[in-house]
Amino acid sequence: MEYTGSKFIGEYVNRRMEGDAEYILPTETRYVGEMKDGMFHGKGTLYFPSGSRYDAIWEKGLAVKGTYTFSDGLQYDAEHWHYCDGYDRRFYTEICYGLRPSVICQLTNMDPPRKVPKGCYDCGDGFYNPITRIIRDYSNRFLRNADDDEHEWIIRTCRKGWLRLK
């Protein structure tokens, strides 16, 4: 574990992680659940630093069936997903608490929305700087470098922090 920056809390059988355990990745994502032969196996949950989670059934390290829940409680449903699409453009908070008067715009599910640093984009799990191509989480910790496809998607679809004129 000292080489990867991960942390394991649980039992070892034949020098392999086994049984009910907690595995903490260097990104602070935590897996809590069953392990077998050093892999996620059985029921287990991934808890992400953003507050979202993925509850799944795992087989030999691969999720075979699962449910993703966003930090605000919205559950992803692959078969009947109509969140912020052409069918229903409301944010989850608007579905739960109703729409605001038409003169008060809601730009994101979070209300009020996060303030995006000048020249950067809010890409959902952090802020993206298109000059350095680095995504940092909302606490300013490094998340990842964006490849060309992610860069283009962020520029095309995400909310940008603009220079405010007085």
From TrEMBL:
Q: Which InterPro entries match?
A: MORN (IPR003409), Morn5 (IPR042814)
State a single Pfam family of this protein.
MORN
User: What cellular component terms from Gene Ontology apply here?
Assistant: sperm flagellum
The answer on whether this UniProt entry bears the keyword Repeat reads yes
Keywords, in A-Z order: Cell projection, Cilium, Flagellum, Repeat
Q: Where in the cell is it found?
A: Cell projection, Cilium, Flagellum
- Tell me the superkingdom of the source: Eukaryota
Q: What is this protein called?
A: MORN repeat-containing protein 5
Q: Which organism is it from?
A: Cavia porcellus
